[in-house]
UniProtKB/TrEMBL annotation:
Contains an active site 4-methylidene-imidazol-5-one (MIO), which is formed autocatalytically by cyclization and dehydration of residues Ala-Ser-Gly. This is Histidine ammonia-lyase. GO terms for molecular function: histidine ammonia-lyase activity. Keywords: Cytoplasm, Histidine metabolism, Lyase. It is an enzyme of class 4 (lyase). It is found in: Cytoplasm. It comes from Niallia taxi. Belongs to the PAL/histidase family. The keyword Isomerase does not apply. The modification 2,3-didehydroalanine (Ser) is found at S143. Pathway: Amino-acid degradation; L-histidine degradation into L-glutamate; N-formimidoyl-L-glutamate from L-histidine: step 1/3.
Length: 503
């Protein structure tokens, strides 16, 4: 199973193959030619003593400082060492792996002026499952993800640390064990490795992929809640959604109806009550809008993962070297803030459905779904946990992209804070999944109280999956274990029953 990089056609399917199936990564033959042409331009410009930013000049505010030919290699290693100053908890191995992949894909595009052997070592690290240890804090998301990518680049020169076969080791030792040799950076190469958006984009890709999976599960869990609360299905009828023609809203309504088809628990308008609360009745409108958000995020990420985002860019056909700003993370910063808001809403409306499931004033079920109300508290405090997570998400969803702090003595006077936006979006996804897990636990318990044999066939499948992880509640127990176990289960691919994705 191989994934070929050419800088233009990398897909989410490819990323998942590299991430989950450890597919072998190769650079496409045509891409190698582009890489070689780009490098040849750099070497010719150096030979002709042209002044090129980051090749024979300093960086940032030092862009007007000319560097002698004898110091060009020293300039590049100094860049990597000085910029490797990120702090905080390291990114996960998954993030580190995707960063390697995305950086390699950007370099394979052929506009970075890097040598083929340097790109090959990036690929070799991927294929040997060498994952650089990269602290997660310290990037402004403009001038690229300089600090995080510098930690990635350190490993290629045999410095820094990496995870190899589950063990954290010095990079030099990791390369030795894998049968690889560190490189000695030549002109332009250090800058080519660190000037890009691959840290914020890698976190963004993982946040999106998990959010997409969570979204589909939230629809299924919402349908199970609808049955547990004997909800009214009229609100999901196609007629009302055709007159407000958002495709995503229509599709969510259609899916909910398909999930509850054959249910003996759902009701019709006027049968028990005329209308349901918004958290039930407005599932298509709210979840549909969330789907729109996911579509937007997917579109921007697809562009970014196949972009040249370093500076300067080398155009081999014309011989031009252009100092521009493709490293600026604003497009993905906006997308990540939007993702944060959308996923926070998954949790917001889910928590309201949890409240309707456990609150005896809002349903005809035993108080807090307890088997012995009063003596036992049942699922009372799970709603507290959901409320706490929802509140935390509200603070995390504060947009990062509206902030900017000048850097490099005001040479780099506007930045995106996109990496912070991506990190927060990822945290929100983790919190939201726990909220949906709590709703699933409560909805399954309500279904058992009502009689799970009355569930729609689709909901029965979901109920069985939940019960395989969270046993029927017959008395109070430590529910933290149930929430954690179901949260982990929801992350797995085999929980994605849907054959067609909305986003």
């Amino acid at each position: 199973m191989n994934v070929f990089l050419d800088g233009s056609t990398l897909s989410f399917t490819d990323i998942k193959l590299v991430l989950n199936k450890k597919a072998t990564v190769e650079v496409h033959e045509d891409a190698w030619e582009n890489v070689k042409k780009s490098r040849a331009v750099v070497e010719k410009l150096i030979e002709d003593k042209n002044v090129i930013y980051g090749v024979n000049t300093g960086f940032g505010k030092f862009s007007d400082t000319i560097i002698s030919t004898d110091d060009l290699e020293h300039l590049q290693i100094n860049l990597i060492r000085s910029h490797a100053c990120a702090v905080g908890k390291p990114f996960s191995e998954d993030v580190s792996r995707v960063m390697l992949l995305l950086r390699a894909n950007a370099l394979a595009k052929g506009y970075s002026g890097i040598r083929p052997e340097t790109l090959q070592l990036l690929i070799d690290c991927l294929n040997h499952e060498i994952h650089p240890v990269i602290p997660s804090q310290g990037s402004l998301g403009a001038s690229g993800d300089l600090a995080p990518l510098a930690h990635l680049a350190l490993v290629l020169v045999g410095e820094g640390e990496a995870i190899y076969l589950g063990e954290k080791l010095e990079a030099k030792e990791v390369l030795r064990r894998a049968g690889l040799k560190p490189i000695r950076l030549k002109a332009k190469e250090g800058l080519a490795l660190i000037n890009g958006t691959q840290a914020l984009t890698s976190v963004g890709v993982l946040a999106y992929l998990e959010a997409q999976k969570l979204f589909h599960m939230a629809n299924r869990v919402a349908a199970l809640t609808l049955e547990g609360l004997r909800g009214i299905v009229d609100a999901f009828s196609p007629e009302s959604h055709l007159v407000r023609p958002y495709p995503e809203q229509q599709e969510v309504a259609e899916r909910i109806l398909s999930y509850v088809e054959g249910s003996k628990l759902t009701t019709k308008q006027g049968e028990l009550r005329v209308q349901d609360a918004y958290s039930l009745r407005c599932i298509p409108q709210v979840h549909g809008a969330i789907s729109q958000t996911l579509n937007y995020v997917k579109e921007k990420l697809m562009i970014e993962i196949n972009s040249a985002t370093d500076n300067p860019l080398i155009f081999a056909d014309s011989g031009k070297v252009i100092s521009g700003g493709n490293f600026h993370g604003q497009p993905i910063a906006f997308a990540m803030d939007f993702l944060s808001i959308g996923v926070a809403e998954i949790a917001n409306i889910s928590e309201r459905r949890i409240e309707r499931l456990v609150n005896p004033q809002l349903n005809d079920l035993p108080a807090f779904l307890s088997t012995n109300p009063g003596l036992e508290s049942g699922l009372m405090i799970t709603q507290y946990v959901a409320a706490s997570l929802v509140s935390e998400n509200k603070t995390l969803a504060h947009p990062s992209s509206v902030d900017s702090i000048p850097s490099s003595a005001n040479q780099e006077d506007h930045v995106s804070m996109g990496t912070t936006a991506a990190r927060h979006a990822y945290e929100i996804v983790q919190n939201a999944r726990k909220v949906v897990a709590i709703e699933a636990i409560c909805a399954a318990q309500a279904a058992d109280i009502r009689g799970c044999e009355k569930l729609a066939p689709e909901s029965k499948l979901l109920h069985e999956k939940i019960r395989a992880t969270v046993p029927l509640i017959i008395s109070d127990r430590v529910f933290a274990t149930d929430i954690e176990n179901l949260d982990q289960a929801l992350k797995q691919e085999n929980w994605s029953f849907d054959t067609g994705a909305i986003t």
